Amino acid sequence: MIVTVTLNPALDITYHVDEFVAGQTHRPRSMSVRAGGKGVNVARVLAGLGEEVVASGLAGGATGRAIVDGLEQARIPASFTWIQDESRRTVVVADRDRATGIWETGPVVTAAEWATFLDDYPRLISTAGVVVLSGSVPPGLPADAYAPLVRAAAATGVQVILDAEGPALHHGLAAGPTLIKPNADELAGAVGIEVDTPERALAAAHQLRAGRPTVVVASLGHRGLVAATCRRDYVVTPPIRVPGNATGAGDAGHPALARGLDRGTAWPQMLADAVGISGGAVAAPVAGESRIDIARQITDRVTVRVIEHGADQGNQCDHASCRNS
Fold this sequence. Notes:
14 strands, single chain, alpha/beta, about 325 residues, ten-stranded mixed β-sheet, 10 helices, UDP-N-acetylmuramoyl-L-alanine:D-glutamate ligase
C-alpha cells in the first residue's frame, strides 16, 4: 500500500482555451474543478493504475471540504487532518501548447494542528510500503516539516519519496529518504549550477546526494529524466515529445516510482515507466490523470542509457534504494 502526504493541497481549477493571450478576455471552451496538489495528483494516478493508495495531509475550510469530497467521489481513500484556515486554490489556463498557472500560497497551520497530524502519522503509514511526501509547505509549518516524516517512516522500514524544494528539500534530504524527485529548475536551485543537459543534471544530482544512499531522480521535461544512484546513473529519453498540458506531468512520474519501490522493480523498468506515465499525463486534459495507452507506447520505446560508476559505499551497499540499481 502507498500513502501520499500533501501538506498544502489545493482545489485545482483548469480552463481550456484555444489560445491564451495575456491582457485579453478569454471564454474557455471547457473547465474542470477537482482536488489537487502534488500528493493528491500522485494518489489519483496511482488509483487509476489500480494501486492501493491513501491520500493524506492537511485540509481546511470549504475549499478543504471540496478537496476531500472530490477524493471520495473519485473513490480514493482520504485521511486528512482538519485545520481552521482555508485550503488554497490553483488556477491553470491551458491552450494547445502551454499552461499558465496561478498558485495561492495556502493556509496558516497552527502548532497544535501540526502536532495533531504528527500524532496521527504513524497510524497512516503503519501498513504502507512506500510514502510519498510532496509539495510546498504551507505557512506556519517549520522549514524542516518533512524531516520528522522521513525519519518516522524510515524507522519503521517504510520507503520514502520526497518531492520538495528549497529549505524543505535540504532538511528532508538530511533525514535520509529513499528517493528525491526534483525537476530541473529545483535541482539547479538546490546546488547553484546550470542544469541544461543530462550530463549536467547528473553532476548536480551527485552534488546534491553528497555520497548519501538517497537516489536522485530529476525530471527534465520533454527530454525525459536522469537518475543518480550509489552504483549507476541512468539517462532515460522518450521517443517523442507529447503535445498538451504539462501541468502535473512531473508529478505523474511519482506513481511509477512509488509502485516500483513497493514491488522491488529494477531501476531501468521503473524509470521507463515513470517517463511513460509522465508523457501520458501531458496528453491528459487535467493534472492527476495519465493516458495509459500513450504511456505504454512511450514506455515500450524509451531509451535507457546506463552509466556505471561503482558504489559510493562499497559494492555491498544494501540500502533500500540500491538493491535493484
